[in-house]
Amino acid sequence: MMTPRIWPDWLNNIWAKSAAKGAGGQPETLAEHTWNVLEKLAETIRLRPALPAQIGVPRLWHCLFWAAFLHDFGKAARGFQARLRPGGEKWKHRHEVLSLAFVDWIAAAFAEEEQRWLVAAIVSHHRDEEDIQQLYNSIGDPSDRSLIGLVAELDEPTLRGLWRWLAECPVNWIETLGLVAAGISIPALPPEGDAVRSVTDQGAANIRKWLKTYHRWVDRTINRSDEAAVQIGAIALRGHLISSDHMASAHVGELPRPQLADPDRLLAGWKLSLDRLYDHQRASLNTRGSAVLMAPTGSGKTEAALLWAVAQAQSHRSVPRLYYTLPFQASMNAMEKRLSEDQDGLAAPFPGQVGLEHSRSTLAYYRRLLEDDYSPQAAAREAKWRKNLAQLNYYPVRVLSPYQLLKGPYRLKGYETLLTDCFEAAFIFDEIHAYEARRLAKILATVKYLRENYAARFLIMSATLPQLLRDQLAEALGDYHLIEASAATYAQFRRHALIVKDGDVLHEANLKRIAQVAASGQAVLVCCNTVDRAQQARQQLADQLRQLKAEVKVELLHGRFNAEDRLRKEGLVREATGARSTQRQALVLVATQVVEVSLDIDLDVIYTDPAPLEALLQRFGRINRRRLKEAAPVCVFREPVPEKPRPYDPELIQAALRVLDRNQYHLIDEAQISGWLDEV
Questions:
Q1: First and final C-alpha spacing in the chain
Q2: Can you point out the beta strands (E) in 18-83?
Q3: What residues have CB less than 8 Å from 11, skipping those under 6 apart?
Q4: Cβ partners under 8 Å of residue 142, min gap 6
Q5: Alpha helices in 520-646 (DSSP H)
Q6: Taking a C-beta distance cutoff of 8 angstroms, is the pair 251, 33 a contact?
Q7: Alpha-carbon distance 92 to 110, whole Å?
């Protein structure tokens, strides 16, 4: 960590954090915390040095540096300092409001509009404007008694110490932080005596002046302005300071430097060379700007997406952030592990750089740590810490649900820090077909907003995309590149022989035949649309196999199992049939729709209830993944088709069956599936 040469030792008695919240169980001085905040700000500035010009706020870094310097000056109040000591009582004021008393010391270094931005950043770094206005309402306190009492908590020696800090340290601190070229001006301070008197004699009036300035600015900038650039600048202002403050308070250490600029490093880790890439992977590596990628399952779409992401680097400067979105928690957990840990002798693309963000990510971390021989207590502590880091914008690579991104347009708590980290980011949207229409509409509207206002770039990828969805993507992405696997690649990945069967999978004769297939040594997937049907199938198949005297396990998997049982069952299935399993064995897996979600398994044959085409294709994806066979049978029964739209719309099922009927007894060509979906 950097250390400035000039340090305000004379303020060591002024704390910003109590021993309970300081690093290593020690109190943290105001100067230490301020330096930590400025370090974090400097690190984020280095991620996007050209951001002020891009968003039309040329002195953004100047405003933010001085806002960060002053943001906690109000903590020097006598009552706040007492609160930080053992036995201290709760303090009823807001320290960020008291910090406004010092704005006049540096105001001459700011244009009038910049003063508004400076004040807004300082006063809003903890509470929203409505909270501040309610606490310090001039109508309710016309004589400003509360503000006068607040300013009175600053004694003269403290004020002189703060002035000296501003007078002696900033030049050296700016140099040490590497911010000389960031456009940060040094203010000409008033003489020490004048500065002290401006606080003691006029501090309350100055605070009220700046509060009125802040309230008018919010009303005009946030609530009434239609100018997107003004809104985006305001979000960047608050988001940078809050993010820097929170990371400093959490003592996260130096931020990882993004490794999102070097395709050669990725290829070496995967033991690949350019001449061994598929055409769509090479095209992804050579594509700048948003794109749509269509390629068959198993043809390296994830690798293509990551090559696209590093290709977005500009002028040898890494992409500042990569967001990898997936629709299901199981998918996210698997992808976070794939990106951050070495697997099967291949190097992880981004070791130590990947955060996981969904509603149960702490539990996912906890389970992983237990597998790594952590004690339950240590695993719980580390899992919470990793979750916190992910929420603090610490990691350069994030695996998350797109619903996390919806916090931005809906202005949910913390939206400014979320959106601030989206500037110039690369986004990968995997399994885009999996979202319900209304949710997908919100996701695509967010994509359009981030593209237009945050210079974000997007890769949307899927094995198949119906034309309807491609039309909507054009609206969201604007001009985009279409990357498609070659006809030869699609032909190479034909691996499923389609069979449509009469009747119901639960018919006794059908279950007897399925049991015989399993007894012959094959791994069989039976997929049912409801839990009740899956339970019946499991029981009857177990009975059939006992009659055949076949020692074949029958595993049941559905969404009603608790997390621990489901994790155990998934592990057993992966051990027997995983795509990377070295000890494959015969097995019957009876499952509901949960099998559609990113389970890394490779079975020999499927017998499934009828379902919408998209669901069936996901189920087929668990069969012959490694292409160990030239073609594996995927068998769809015609019954039952529900009368009511639960769990699926019967019209969608009937439409899928009509398409499948015309194509049965043929190998499925994924290049044709988009046309099938268009028809449905």
A1: 59
A2: 28-29
A3: 29, 30, 31, 161, 162, 165
A4: none
A5: 531-547, 563-577, 613-620
A6: no
A7: 31
